[in-house]
Amino acid sequence: MHRKALAHLRAADPVLKNVIDRVGSCRLRPMTEGTNFDFVARSIIYQQLSTRAAATIYGRVLALCGGTHLTVEPLRELPEPALRSAGLSRQKLGYLRDLAARAGSGDLDAEALGRLPDEDVTRELVLVKGVGVWTAQMFLMFRLGRPDVLPDTDLGIRKGIQKAYRLRKLPDPKRVTRIGAPWAPHRTVASWYLWRLLDAEAGAA
Q1: Which of 31, 53, 157, 188 sits at a 20 to 30 Å CA gap from 141?
Q2: Using CA atoms, how far apart are residues 3 and 80, in angstroms rounded to an integer?
Q3: Which helix H or strand E contains 1, and what residues bound it?
Q4: At which of 124, 142, 160 does a domain end?
Q5: Cα–Cα distance between 71 and 11 in angstroms, integer?
Q6: Do residue 175 and residue 90 come from a single domain?
Q7: Domain hosting residue 164, numbered range
Q8: What residues contact residue 33 under an 8 Å CB cut-off, 6+ apart?
Q9: How does pLDDT run along the chain (205 residues), one tens digit per residue?
Q10: CB under 8 Å to 102, separation ≥6 — which residues?
């Protein structure tokens, strides 16, 4: 599936080639189940929480909504105490309400985002409260499967580059962008390998 990307990355960057050799085959796959709206709502719930805690809260909210994925109307109509009882903070509930209001009014057509260029997807999503550029990048990479996304502010990417390139200091976003320039147009796969490099290091510790 990623043969062309791997061939390009190996040829373009010997350091990344070593990372690819160490990590092994690429298992990156976009999330196809559910809806775009659900993916964004889930991303809001997962912000700044451990995966386990976030999954528990998401499951509770999903149960309240009564479906297999989060939808607009329940998030707009369910009483605040019910949603708060699922474990949502007041701030995140506000974010979800804003997402649902925008989707319900038509200001955000979440299911049409896949037809837009990357820049327009980001522009649409960051209008939602609680959704920043990083969340939009995760949507592009892991929902839409866009091939050339480099989350230059992501701490894992920065740490992965620091480790792979043996840098003394954590690279800032500008340096991340500069180092990653040769990876285009396959920076999504390169990013996946940097995240997995950190996982491999943690597993070996």
Answers
A1: 53
A2: 48
A3: none
A4: 142
A5: 44
A6: no
A7: 3-29+149-204
A8: 69
A9: 799 999 999 999 999 999 999 999 999 999 999 999 999 999 999 998 898 999 999 999 999 999 899 999 999 999 999 999 999 999 999 999 999 999 999 999 999 999 999 999 999 999 999 999 999 999 999 999 999 999 999 999 999 999 999 999 999 999 999 999 999 999 999 999 999 998 877 655 4
A10: 108, 127, 128
Looking up tokens 């605040």 gives 80
**Cβ proximity of 197 and 164 under 8 Å:** yes
Query: Do residues 17 and 47 both lie within one domain?
Result: no
Q: Closest by alpha carbon to 102, among 132, 69, 125?
A: 125
* pLDDT for the residue 202: 65
Q: Which of 142, 175, 192 is the last residue of a domain?
A: 142
Instruction: Please report, for residues 56, 152, 162, 176, 189, the alpha-carbon distance to residue 167 in angstroms, rounded to integers and kept in the order given.
Output: 38, 16, 5, 12, 21
CA distance 113 to 121: 6
User: Cα separation of 10 and 6, whole Å?
Assistant: 6
Domain of 184, CATH number, reads 1.10.1670.40
Q: How many domains are contained in the chain? A: 2
